[in-house]
Sequence to fold (750 residues):
Amino acid sequence: MNELYEKYIKKESLPTLFCPGCGNGIVQFAAIKAFEKLGIKDELACVSGIGCSSWIPCYFKMDVMHTMHGRALPFAEGLKLARPDKKILIFTGDGDCLAIGGNHLIHAASRNIDLTVIEINNYIYGMTGGQKSPATPEGAVTKTSPFGSYDEPIDGCSLVAAAGGTYVARWTTAHPLQLEKAIAEGIEHKGFSFIEVLTQCPVQAGNNIFGEKSPVAMMARYKEMTYIYKEGMEIPEGKVRIGRIKHDTSRKEYTDKVLQKLEEKNIKKGQSNG
Amino acid sequence: MADITIDKACCKGCDICLSICPKKIFVRSKKRNDYGTNMPEAVNRDACLFCGMCERLCPDGAISVRKTEEEKEK
Amino acid sequence: MDPEKPQKKDKKTAVLQGNEACAKAAIQAGCRFFAGYPITPSTEIIEMLSGEMQKAGGVFIQMEDEIGSACSIIGARWGGKRSMTATSGPGYTLMQEAIGFAAVTETPTVIVNVQRGGPSTGQPTMSSQQDIYQARYGSHGDYEIIVLCPSSVQEMYDFTTRAFELSEKFRTPVILLSDEVVGHMREKITMKPLPKDTGEQTRVYASSPTEDFFQGANSMVEGQLHDELGRRIGHIAPKSGEFINKICSKITDNIKEIADVEAFCMEDAEVAILAYGSVARSAMNAIKLARGIKDDRIKAKFRIVKDLFVRGVPATIQTDYSHLKVGLIKVNTVWPFPEEKIQELARNVDMVIVPEMNIGKYCREVKRALWDKTVISMPKCGGEIHSPNELLDRILEEVWCK
Fold:
């Protein structure tokens, strides 16, 4: 086993429940690399919802909360407000975050509370067996859209950027180095960070949407269909914009605002801890 | 020469390492991992560039690439 | 100053609304995190705590919905802060999944439900006791829960404090099942100081990590059935069964400690009224009326009688109840069902009347426990509480018919 992997992963819980070639493992390793780079294992807790992607932190040797479908964000907000000195990382999926948890995402982003959300987008509901998700491309045939999906996909990054999130980035599993950097940046950023990762689901999305089952071919396709955005650039027609989409350090963070107000009113935070 | 190990208990035989390695060091072997699929094997280890892509892109953290003593001296 | 004498600071009296008393008690019980969403008739709790909580050095957040509120208080508890939320009617329905999550992860937290009439939007400004089953069986799956039912502002204060103690001890969510009448009523209460902390509190837990986050314990909070380290066991049938039994028996085995059932005039009673919540107030007055007990509040009672007269119910006033030997069994912890205590208290009575502001739900449990007695359900829907005369008339009717 990889040494770094061994340091952060609970060996007794292995093997992971991901299918062979699943992109979640790549995101998991990128996150581990980011933790190692920042050296903040004890200062960090992970929260996740329900779905394949939400299983990523369950193997970590740290404080982890594996919560309800779509509700990872409120749990994390409670934890963050109780311990504003610590960092919280949230693993969630496209269905978990954009469908059932959409309202929580909008509100957490507009609060600009210091959380880092890694939204793993595999374009499909993987755990339940390949149903349409909010990110499924229009016209894609899935188990619940036999004549092709009628809905236009929701773009999580644009949504969060519009709602007021202050760090927004999108990468794919084919860009592990950049992803690792983005996760580290997101954790360090004081404010609501949202990182969307396009991952391959060779079993469900591979079969139903992309028509290829090989994880390598899917990763190559992700590389092809994306375009790394840098300021002032124009994205070619039909390509997905990846890279750092928004980085705003001017907006005040929620817990900071609260603490500042309390200080003004001469109230010490956590005077008497319950 | 690089010291490349592949953990039998972790590997699921997804073959990502086979195509991702720029030097094509990994080949499919007949050995089975604990998951029940065919495991890759590292051949031609001298060619390793230590780029670390196999480690990063292995979804199960099964691959570990270390420099051997002589390589470190270089 | 004589240190032995109780100082003024230790014992405070005030005239408070039930909801305000609940908020005050929460802060005194060490609650330092409140998340909520405004809903009638529990809004006063969130209104009061929005300022008070922050003044006490705690955290207040108005969440986007009740689901978020219930989830964030669980998150905050794992961050080491005692936490609470308050809601009513539809909001309580939204919280059910999170209550199940708190039960399975053994998270101590307090949820206040100031009941209003349902179903759906129902009667936002009227009282009811229709959530009595939802409080117990609301979330899916098998679990046990502690539900406290206050009937006065003083009890609203005391039970909130007790709810926090019970939740910490038994590592479980505790529901404070109040109702609109108690929540909006103003009464004089005594705010007693908390008993001194006697060091390390004993915890009763089934099979979950109990260390808060960031203590280096690598706590794994898992909504699936899990072992003591938080590893999932949901796919192993025998272990899962064991887990369910453990999580239920940690409450049912300690029922003697949890159960709080009060008895009034039960020594020689032939008929008992079994009531909980605001209906118990009415039942109490009924007993005073029948037994001729005079106290400070007897004037108030007469006013009620006069009121009825004005409204055109003169017959009830002339009725003589003095031959009725009525007692009251007042259930304060409605769940877990205090079966043994009720059986013991009702040992010598022939008949038990169960008045409730719903279609007669709790009566089913009482019938099961007192299978050898005549148990009569007295439901009343619509949002009005039973009047003492109504209760006594029903008893008279039943006694005559027998």
